[in-house]
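Late entry, written up from scratch paper. The run itself happened at the end of the previous shift, but nothing got recorded in the book at the time, so transcribing now.
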Amino acid sequence: MKWQGRRQSGNLDDRRGMGGKGKLAAGGGIVVVIIVMALNFFGGDTGKQLAPIVEQLGGSQTQQTEQRELTTQEKEIGDFMATVLADTEDVWNQIFASNNLGNYKEPTMVLFTDAVSTGCGNATAASGPFYCPADQQVYMDLAFFDELKTRFGAKGGDFAMAYVTAHEIGHHIQTLLGTSQKVRQLQQRTGKAEANQLSVALELQADFYAGVWAHYNQKYLEEGDIDEALSAANAVGDDAIQKRMQGHVVPDSFTHGTSEQRKTWFMKGYKTGDIKQGDTFSEIVR
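Output as recorded:
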């Protein structure tokens, strides 16, 4: 991705280098559900195995007490993330204006190490990248992307990071448009299987929005970028994760969609660039 020398967002809150060992403890309803799912489908080793499927966590952590200087490489990655965030701002400001959706409220992205306090509760790096609707901020421990390559088999590369960022911004779009709130309300009135289907539809729509962002950002794409995004999407499909962790899949337990679904919806957004074509719910929820 062509990013050097371009505009960087002022909405990046870089908290990396602030040390401390985070300790996760169940503290809210969604946390309990996630931990139960982990015990049922992934065994007792929850940790970083949950990174691709957890997006909101509560709990407790020790306070961050140490601080260190970032390396040159870490600073460069921070500059890259600030550039990608700026790209999402430019694209979504344009889309909101052209579709009469009102003003786009730009979110903050928080980069952290080990543990972080959020409006959704405290979280550790085990949560992976996630979006918190309570404070409308995206949180990332960038060590996740090493895990994505080494444990989950993704190609890696800078556009894999851009795809994950755009996916989390997709959840911000859903919050602004009221989609997330409607889904949570429906989930409270349905059984577990249908609640999971709603979760899958929500996640696939975020992948679709990531594709829409890529569509409008094509002038900065390089050869191989879309393949990197698709490789990341493939790696974090529910079926791929379950096969890797337990040797078989349990479709009713899916919360993010299969690898094929995630790739398909990202590509639909990328090819069309039309947010009106992102109705994942009518196709997923039975």
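Residues 20-64 have pLDDT under 50 and may be disordered.
(Scratch paper discarded after transcription.)
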